[in-house]
């Protein structure tokens, strides 16, 4: 049984807190080896008995989503922690424990935190902290992929800014970690609507690339310039992030029920839009449209040909600039955002 729509209703994974002393992957803004043995972590190997008890023996009623790794279950550990447990059966990830140990060293406020794992001969499980507000899509559109208007522009740009910082951190590691499966359903929200990127480090990129060019079930988030898994680069993640930005601004799913033609997704619509205002989510206020257009222009750069796409660091900077520009419309945030700085190096 497929549970695609569950992903819009609740959370797959968990929040993470930054290291109290150093952001892993950087020291004094200099790059370091992300997987250095000098860093410690709290990721622990759990028993299958505890995971079965946590999920009531992987009960169907505990399923809260389905992602690239497999079904996701909500669980309660013996120490009282509420967690999200991803379970992969039979088709197992090679070098699973090695990847777990590598991912466990990555810490950032906008990346979900891996807290445990389990592996045997036929299954692999990843345990994350649980995020109560689910993924961003559940706050943007309904089951048909059409706008529901729960988020104002400030919240949308704050979410985009947080997610961009998470992906940028992955790219800053040595060696860089390419997400390869970035999408709206993998941007999760904690109780304060802080965005955290999930599903990094364990994606099956080969399956995704094999789907490029198929006439049905086209993955709108996948870089159309890809042909082989080994061709994934940071700019492939940038393309996916651009599609995410388009969803944030138009409020629609990348390919929704109103689109009869498989080629008619929001990337196609945005690139062929004569009037950008008509692309913007109708639930946003009139005063918010200028900021929305700025985000849309950034998104169009992201989904341009590879050579013209900005880096994630540039995207982070641009979103921060847009946030400062729209701050006067949201007086409750003025003290947080600081002085307004207008303009952007991307559009000069």
Automatic annotation (TrEMBL):
<keyword id="KW-1003">Cell membrane</keyword>
<feature type="binding site">
    <location>
        <position position="86"/>
    </location>
    <ligand>
        <name>ATP</name>
    </ligand>
</feature>
<keyword id="KW-0547">Nucleotide-binding</keyword>
<keyword id="KW-0418">Kinase</keyword>
<dbReference type="InterPro" id="IPR017441">
    <property type="entry name" value="Protein_kinase_ATP_BS"/>
</dbReference>
<dbReference type="InterPro" id="IPR000719">
    <property type="entry name" value="Prot_kinase_dom"/>
</dbReference>
<dbReference type="InterPro" id="IPR047117">
    <property type="entry name" value="PERK1-13-like"/>
</dbReference>
<keyword id="KW-0808">Transferase</keyword>
<dbReference type="InterPro" id="IPR011009">
    <property type="entry name" value="Kinase-like_dom_sf"/>
</dbReference>
<dbReference type="GO" id="GO:0005886">
    <property type="term" value="C:plasma membrane"/>
</dbReference>
<dbReference type="Pfam" id="PF07714">
    <property type="entry name" value="PK_Tyr_Ser-Thr"/>
</dbReference>
<keyword id="KW-1133">Transmembrane helix</keyword>
<dbReference type="GO" id="GO:0004674">
    <property type="term" value="F:protein serine/threonine kinase activity"/>
</dbReference>
<dbReference type="InterPro" id="IPR001245">
    <property type="entry name" value="Ser-Thr/Tyr_kinase_cat_dom"/>
</dbReference>
<feature type="domain" description="Protein kinase">
    <location>
        <begin position="58"/>
        <end position="320"/>
    </location>
</feature>
<keyword id="KW-0723">Serine/threonine-protein kinase</keyword>
<keyword id="KW-0067">ATP-binding</keyword>
<dbReference type="GO" id="GO:0005524">
    <property type="term" value="F:ATP binding"/>
</dbReference>
<protein>
    <recommendedName>
        <fullName>non-specific serine/threonine protein kinase</fullName>
        <ecNumber>2.7.11.1</ecNumber>
    </recommendedName>
</protein>
<keyword id="KW-0472">Membrane</keyword>
<keyword id="KW-0812">Transmembrane</keyword>
<keyword id="KW-0675">Receptor</keyword>
């Amino acid at each position: 049984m497929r549970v695609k729509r569950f992903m819009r209703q609740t959370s797959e994974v968990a929040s993470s807190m930054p290291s109290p002393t150093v952001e892993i992957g950087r020291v004094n803004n200099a790059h370091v080896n992300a997987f250095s043995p000098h860093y410690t972590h709290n990721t622990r190997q759990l028993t299958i008995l505890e995971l079965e008890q946590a999920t009531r023996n992987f009960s169907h009623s505990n399923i809260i989503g389905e992602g690239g790794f497999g079904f996701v279950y909500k669980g309660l550990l013996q120490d009282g922690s509420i967690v999200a447990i991803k379970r992969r059966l039979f088709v197992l990830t090679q070098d699973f424990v090695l990847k777990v140990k590598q991912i466990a060293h990555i810490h950032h406020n906008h990346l979900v935190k891996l807290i445990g794992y389990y592996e045997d001969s036929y299954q692999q499980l990843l345990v994350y902290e649980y995020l109560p507000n689910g993924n961003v899509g559940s706050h943007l559109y309904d089951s048909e992929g059409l706008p529901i208007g729960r988020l104002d522009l400030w919240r949308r740009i704050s979410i985009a800014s947080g997610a961009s910082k998470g992906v940028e951190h992955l790219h800053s590691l040595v060696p860089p970690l390419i997400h390869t499966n970035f999408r709206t359903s993998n941007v999760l929200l904690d109780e304060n609507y802080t965005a955290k990127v999930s599903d990094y480090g364990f994606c099956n990129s080969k399956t995704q690339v094999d789907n490029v060019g198929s006439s049905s079930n086209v993955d709108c988030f996948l870089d159309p310039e890809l042909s082989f898994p080994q061709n994934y680069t940071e700019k492939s993640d940038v393309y996916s992030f651009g599609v995410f930005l388009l969803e944030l601004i138009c409020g629609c799913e990348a390919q929704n029920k109103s689109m009869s033609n498989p080629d008619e997704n929001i990337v196609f619509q945005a690139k062929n839009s004569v009037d950008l205002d008509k692309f913007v989510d109708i639930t946003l206020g009139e005063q918010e449209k200028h900021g929305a257009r700025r985000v849309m222009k950034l998104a169009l750069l992201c989904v341009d040909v590879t050579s013209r796409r900005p880096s994630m660091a540039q995207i982070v900077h641009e979103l921060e600039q847009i946030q400062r520009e729209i701050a006067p419309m949201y007086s409750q945030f003025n003290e947080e955002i600081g002085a307004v700085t207008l303009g952007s190096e991307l559009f000069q």
